[in-house]
Amino acid sequence: MKVIKIEKDQIDDELLAQAARLIREGGLVAFPTETVYGLGANALDREAAKKIYAAKGRPSDNPLIVHIGKKEELEVLVKEVPEAGRRLMDAYWPGPLTLIFPKSGLVPDETTGGLDTVAVRMPMDRIASCLIELAGVPIAAPSANTSGRPSPTLAEHVYQDMDGRIDLLIDGGPVGIGVESTIVDVSGPVPVLLRPGAVTMEMLEAVIGKLDTDQAVLGPVSDKVKPKAPGMKYRHYAPRAQMILVEKGLETRETVTETINRLAAEKMNQGFRVGIICTEETFDQYPKGMVKSLGLRSKEETIAHNLFAVLREFDDLEADYIYSECFPESHLGQAIMNRLSKAAGYHMIHTGEDRE
Ligand code: TXA
Ligand code: MG
After folding, report:
1. Residue of the nearest CA to atom 23 in ligand 1?
2. Residue 102: strand pairing partners
3. What's the CA-to-centroid distance between 314 and ligand 2, angstroms?
4. What's phi and psi for 171, nearest 5 deg?
């Protein structure tokens, strides 16, 4: 796999044009976006879309997001643009918001996993938008990780997962946001949040009023319920360790740090390798174990930004168990807790409880 380095504030057009040509010719190119790195191919080319599934080891019923460079490029991909979709585009495109529309005949089934809807996003990242413009075609791109691993927020992560499987990696440095885009389905009568992200529920409601939230966002989905975003049913972001989230219980004086230290000590005494996920504010309160801070609790963006990298670091450290602090579920916290809960397989305990 070839790697090219491109500076965001000084884009080398000629270098990027090579990447764009690869996309046009049906190749696979990983590139940075403001959310996570994507694994891109020509969205209108069935064979190229198929290659994406193969490179990721991804089930073919899990549809891809189509990335465009200009709002005008949406029209040919969709049957119609409902009013809620129009308003959200006007407010948050370009940016970390994916919208689901009824698809047009131009978009192949391979790109949409056989669905009659298509997910579209207009990224804000300059490398991503220049690449789309130079390619002259919409780019289908899932997160550039092997299926089941945390999404890549550094070029190194893509390298680890994709070397030997794709044609080119554009290294644009660390991404900004660190969690994947917000997904809202505007194809039905009521807009539905399918995946929380940096365009928060509060920001969505400010533009279109109340919206529904898909089951899969709120908790584990049983085999009987079909989540609207097929990808939400998989145990994404899963670290190799067993992960447990620790939340403050109401009926005890034991604090979150005390509970985590107690449970971690038990596991370490049994010979296990134990990781602890905390924040700058609490870092000093964990004397033992492999302790990693996500960032500042008082600055949620730092937590989102570091989350997936920390999960990958614990894979490298071969942790057996990971105990993690929780976060309030408002604003960006909803996306953070959604990713943490999925990584933990929804395994959460409350302080004062004896066992994990
Ligand atoms: O931030 C992002 O969205 C990144 C960057 C690269 O843009 N991409 C990303 O793609 O996270 P991926 O494939 O990892 O996640 C896409 C999610 C999956 O859960 C998929 O099931 C859902 O979007 N999705 C795609 N098309 C859909 C559709 N037509 N209806 C419902 N859900 C859809
Ligand atoms: Mg993904």
Report:
1. 229
2. 117
3. 19
4. -90, 105
Using DSSP's 3-state secondary structure scheme, residue 134 falls into helix
For the segment 52-94, what is each residue's pLDDT rounded down to a tens digit?
999 999 888 899 999 999 999 999 999 999 999 999 999 999 9
Q: Which atom of ligand 1 is found nearest the CA of 145?
A: 14
Q: Read off the pTM.
A: 0.96
**How many whole angstroms from 150 Cα to the centroid of ligand 2?**
8
In terms of Cα–Cα distance, which of 222, 260, 261, 223 is closest to 244?
A: 260
Contact 121, 66 (CB under 8 A): yes
Q: Are 280 and 297 in contact (CB under 8 A)?
A: yes
Residue nearest (by alpha carbon) to ligand 1 atom 30: 229
Residue of minimum CA distance from atom 18 in ligand 1: 231
**Pick from 14, 15, 29: nearest CA to 169:** 29
Torsion angle in degrees (nearest 10) through CA of 16, 18, 22, 23: 30
Which of the ligands is closest to the CA of residue 124? Answer: 1
